[in-house]
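Supplementary Methods S3. Input chains for the assembly prediction are listed below.
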Amino acid sequence: KAGVTQTPRYLIKTRGQQVTLSCSPISGHRSVSWYQQTPGQGLQFLFEYFSETQRNKGNFPGRFSGRQFSNSRSEMNVSTLELGDSALYLCASSLIVGGSAEAFFGQGTRLTVV
Amino acid sequence: GESVGLHLPTLSVQEGDNSIINCAYSNSASDYFIWYKQESGKGPQFIIDIRSNMDKRQGQRVTVLLNKTVKHLSLQIAATQPGDSAVYFCAENMHRDSNYQLIWGAGTKLIIKP
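Predicted structure tokens for the full assembly:
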């Protein structure tokens, strides 16, 4: 069974630009969660999607948004990029919603904002 | 505020010895706790979980202990091997405002001495 796939692996963007990251969950998993990981803040929950609906949301500004498609693939978008958005963005898939079960992570997308 | 934290940022252990990684949490209403391992360049990998109605759970070479009285979680790794070198994260599943959210600790780096 293929694991969670995130694309691209690396990105370099300029301040003010916008970026879209993609996540393909494990086949059969309908929950996709997104996290931001930085050395100073650790893993911060962004949001979770289940059956194309956002079910849970962390404390990030509206510049961070996401969506989920009917095949459970998810995208995350960050608009008006800031230097502080440089981080590893991780996607995790799970069978159920709500964080009460094992989640499988992708390798992440390393975003650098210059 | 709500937080999940780790007592030690770095733990150095002799190969073959047992490792104990500690975690404190602040929300007594959290009902599910998870340990993840993250190796360099990879996404977090699930190790073991425990629900709040339990105080101990064992896996292969790993044991998680939950002390709800003092809101403390620990991960014990038996006979530590070089492949155990990684950053270990604890996380609690918190129910807040009709949402569930995984709150992550800062991580403990486990170093194995030969």
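The first strand of chain B starts at residue 4 and ends at 6. The CA atoms of residues 12 and 72 of chain B lie 21 Å apart.
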